[in-house]
């Protein structure tokens, strides 16, 4: 039996960014879009241009710089949104306008305040208008899984006649089950007369933990496009995870008889990049990309894997881009060996980026006995998140103990020199954060803070993630160091710099303002 081609529509940059606490900068969105292009997804939903000037600019930059996948923009079923999508997508090599309106009775009554006939006319008009601006038009019936099936088929028939080339069947609130959803897809195939003129797409949320299962069931019943996100991030409980979908089809090819165009060796590093830039930590037992996905604690399992990996591994770590050769370099390793390891790990970086990373690598190698692949990946991810800085950590010093008040001193480099402050706090992290607040000259609302080890061992590289909040916006900062306090203060300062950049903070600092006063 010939394998059927399934198209993957990645919405990490649109639905994924709706994850609570996630707010990506345009440059971070571009970084993720470029990684998705290397992953070889079929379409990238770059954002919702009408939502804000920032979203419009990010979609336009991605449309300009990212080649390969179709670049898609979301628009409500109105002319203003569609025109914003058109303008943002103008530079794209291949573009798609994705317009939507709800079709369930509960949405019509309580959200839209529209009749079925009014929604039908709005959907048809939106698709016809969008068709004049893009080669591909996708239409989504929001809350399709809770809509009346016969009415849903009427809507799809009309939008296909108006020019829709992809019709999407969203399980918007994660309500359906695999058997029920599969029957819905089959019903649409059998009851929409012109369905042969469009591709059926599905978009599943994970509220009941069935987004991937529902997507696969839909695929088995005729869906040809699956909408998904990296690591399954997204609104509420998230979306179907691309890495789980891809590896299910790859590992069970003889069962599903389906295949994608994805380069599976890019899955792991794309997963880590998205986790780093969004600040959403991957749970250790996460399927495919979690830290424990290829770990074997049981002695019986370990013996089996050493004898033959297939005893307990249904897929190899190499398939998703993880090397079994964990220890790679040390303090005496040269630049050539470092460059070769980067290539082995699959990273394509320019000479300047490699030179900057090598300096960081040598600094880390002076602190650690050996460098692991995960250490190098962490350095690369940190390099990808560097931004223009108002404040840079010069030094920190902390005194703490269970019988003494924690005291911290920090020095921050600014455009006018070094500013130094000291503070006490409830523990070393609290003390150093308060000292940073005094040094920058304003209070910072700390929303969340996490610290974890990148690798194992006494000299493990620590990764700190900090979330701060201002005017209902959340900014995520990240820091790396073998010293967890240093990693923490670096993450705090990184988050502050992101916040300042987003609000148009003037290029001056506390020391300069003090001199003026």
Descriptive overview:
Strand 8, helix 8 (211-220) and strand 9 (225-228) form a beta-alpha-beta unit. This protein has three domains: 4-278, TIM Barrel; 323-384; 392-516, Alpha-isopropylmalate synthase LeuA, regulatory domain (Double Stranded RNA Binding Domain, 2-Layer Sandwich). It has helices at residues 26-39, 53-65, 79-89, 105-112, 116-131, 149-162, 178-191, 211-220, 242-251, 253-256, 267-278, 299-307, 335-344, 351-367, 373-384, 428-440, 484-502, 510-516, and strands spanning 4-5, 7-10, 43-47, 70-76, 95-102, 136-142, 166-171, 199-204, 225-228, 258-259, 327-329, 371-372, 392-401, 404-414, 417-425, 445-453, 462-470, 473-481. An eight-stranded parallel barrel has the order 2-3-4-5-6-7-8-9, surrounded by eight helices. Strands 13-14-15 form a three-stranded antiparallel sheet, covered by helices on one side. A three-stranded antiparallel sheet has the order 16-17-18. It is an alpha/beta fold and 517 residues long. It has 18 helices and 18 strands.
Keywords for this structure?
alpha/beta, 517 residues, disordered C terminus, Double Stranded RNA Binding Domain, 3-stranded antiparallel β-sheet, 8-stranded parallel beta barrel, globular, TIM Barrel, 18 helices
């Amino acid at each position: 039996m010939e394998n059927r081609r399934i198209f993957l529509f990645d919405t990490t940059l649109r639905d994924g960014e709706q994850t609570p606490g996630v707010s990506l900068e345009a440059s971070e969105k571009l970084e993720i879009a470029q990684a998705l292009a290397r992953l070889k997804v079929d379409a990238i939903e770059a954002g919702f241009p009408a939502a804000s000037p920032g979203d419009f600019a990010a979609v336009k930059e991605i449309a300009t710089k990212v080649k390969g996948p179709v670049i898609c923009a979301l628009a409500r079923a109105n002319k203003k949104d569609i025109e914003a999508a058109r303008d943002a997508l103008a530079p794209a090599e291949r573009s798609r306008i994705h317009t939507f309106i709800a079709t369930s009775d509960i949405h019509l009554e309580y959200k839209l305040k529209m009749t079925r006939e009014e929604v039908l006319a709005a959907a048809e008009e939106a698709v016809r208008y969008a068709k004049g601006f893009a080669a591909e038009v996708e239409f989504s019936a929001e809350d399709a899984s809770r809509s009346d099936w016969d009415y849903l088929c009427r809507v799809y028939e009309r939008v296909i006649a108006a020019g829709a080339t992809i019709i999407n069947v969203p399980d918007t609130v994660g309500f359906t089950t695999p058997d029920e959803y599969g029957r819905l897809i089959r019903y649409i195939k059998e009851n929409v007369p012109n369905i042969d003129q469009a591709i059926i797409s599905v978009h599943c949320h994970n509220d009941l933990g069935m987004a991937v299962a529902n997507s696969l069931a839909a695929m088995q019943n005729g869906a040809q496009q699956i909408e998904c996100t990296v690591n399954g991030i997204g609104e509420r409980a998230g979306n179907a995870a691309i890495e789980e979908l891809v590896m299910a089809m790859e590992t069970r090819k003889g069962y599903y008889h389906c295949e994608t165009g994805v380069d599976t060796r890019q899955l792991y590093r794309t997963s880590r990049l998205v986790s780093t830039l969004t600040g959403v930590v991957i749970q250790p037992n996460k399927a495919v990309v979690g830290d424990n996905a290829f770990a074997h604690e049981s002695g019986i399992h370990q013996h089996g894997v050493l004898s033959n990996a297939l005893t307990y591994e249904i897929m190899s770590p190499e398939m998703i881009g993880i090397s079994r050769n964990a220890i790679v370099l040390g303090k005496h390793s040269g630049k050539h060996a470092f460059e070769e390891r980067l290539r082995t790990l699959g990273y394509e970086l320019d000479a300047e980026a490699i030179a900057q990373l090598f300096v960081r690598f040598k600094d880390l190698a002076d602190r650690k006995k050996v460098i692991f692949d995960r250490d190098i990946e962490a350095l690369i991810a940190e390099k990808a998140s560097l931004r223009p800085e108002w404040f840079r950590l010069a030094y920190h010093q902390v005194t703490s103990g269970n019988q003494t008040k924690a005291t911290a001193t920090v020095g921050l480099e600014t455009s006018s020199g070094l500013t130094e402050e000291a503070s006490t706090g409830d523990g070393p992290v609290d003390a150093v954060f308060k000292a940073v607040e005094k040094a920058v000259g304003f209070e910072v609302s700390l929303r969340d803070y996490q610290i974890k080890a990148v690798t194992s061992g006494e000299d493990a590289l620590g990764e700190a993630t900090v979330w701060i909040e201002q005017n209902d916006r959340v900014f995520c900062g990240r820091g790396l160091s073998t010293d967890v306090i240093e990693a923490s203060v670096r993450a705090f300062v990184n988050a502050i710099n992101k916040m300042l950049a987003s609000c148009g903070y003037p290029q001056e600092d506390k020391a300069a303002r003090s001199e003026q006063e």
